[in-house]
Structure formats: structure tokens, C-alpha cells
């Protein structure tokens, strides 16, 4: 089999990072390289032509997931013409939805990656990116009346608990209670 072009190699790398970002959010960073590459439609051997290690891919996939989150926040602000309160309300509505609960692969990296990154060493690039992403998300959620970290913790906790109790009435009750608390305490109506 011949060598791939530089453009094809870049496309393959992008596809692996995008696939890893989704799979890590859905299944955790323990996903095997073989399973990841299969999901990306590439061979296991191709992985080592693109990445020095799985840890390097975790670092890059984490950054990719947080870049997606930042683009979502930017798009929300643009959609609501810079009206931060309305953009925050829309984010809260979407975040605490059954759809978001049921789709971790395309969901928030804060909730999906927290446990895996907590188990990792503190010196990794993924931990730095995660920490910055959490801080940026909290900044986006801050209002004159509510601390962004508290709001993020409420979103995160509700989503994680709702996922863990999925299939029971408690799951949706958790989402609704957190939503009511955030909206009631917010300056938006």
C-alpha cells in the first residue's frame, strides 16, 4: 500500500482526534487504541504514524472538545446578538435536557471527562486544558447575581447524577430541579 499524501494524513489525524473526542466523552479515556482507530475507519498501525502515545491523543482530544464548547458559547452569544442572559438561558435549557443527558459523545467535556482527568496525573496537558476550559465555562455562566462556578457545579452535578440515574423518574427530576434553581436565581426571565 502506498504512502498517503500530506493532506490525507492531516485529514486522518483530524478524523482520529474528532473520533477520540467523542468516544472519550462517551466511554472514557480507557477506550483502546484499536477500538478508537476502528471507529475512525483507520488501521491500528496508522495511530503511531500520527501520535507519539495515547496520552498525546487524550491531550489533543480534550483540547478539541473544549474548543467545540467555546464555539458553542460564541455561537450562542451571536445567535442572541450579544445578549448574555438569553444565551445563558438557552445553554441551561439545552444542558439540562434529556437529549444532552442521553448523548454524552456530543455533550459537555466538563461532565464527561471529569472522572478520567481526576485520576490522571496533574502535570498532563489534558489537565491544564480541562482546568482552563472549566474556568472559561464558569466565566461564561457568571451573572451579576450568581457566581459562575456555582452555576457550573449545579449544571455539572445535575447532568452527572441524571446520567447515573437514567431510566428512573429521579433522572428527569434532577434535571428539572437544577433547571428551576438556576433559572429562578438568574436575572433572566
Give the arrangement of secondary structure elements:
Layout: H1 6-27, H2 33-40, H3 44-50, H4 54-79, H5 84-95, H6 98-101, H7 109-119, H8 125-141, H9 148-164, H10 169-185
Helix pairs in contact: 1-2, 1-4, 4-5, 4-8, 7-8, 8-9, 9-10
Folded structure, characterized:
This protein is mostly helical and 189 residues long. It has helices at 6-27, 33-40, 44-50, 54-79, 84-95, 98-101, 109-119, 125-141, 148-164, 169-185. The longest helix has 26 residues, at 54-79.
Concise synopsis of the structure shown:
By secondary structure, this protein is mostly helical.
Query: How do the helices and strands follow one another from N- to C-terminus?
Result: HHHHHHHHHH
| Structure class | mainly alpha
Mean pLDDT across the residues is 92
Could you tell me how far the N terminus lies from the C terminus, measured between alpha carbons in angstroms?
Answer: 61 Å
Largest sheet: none
The rough form would be described as globular
**Gyration radius from CA atoms, angstroms:** 18 Å
Low-confidence parts: none
Report the total helices: 10
What fraction of the residues are assigned to beta strands by DSSP?
A: under 5%
Count every beta strand, where a strand is a DSSP E run of 2 or more residues: 0
What fraction, in percent, of the residue positions are helical? over 70%
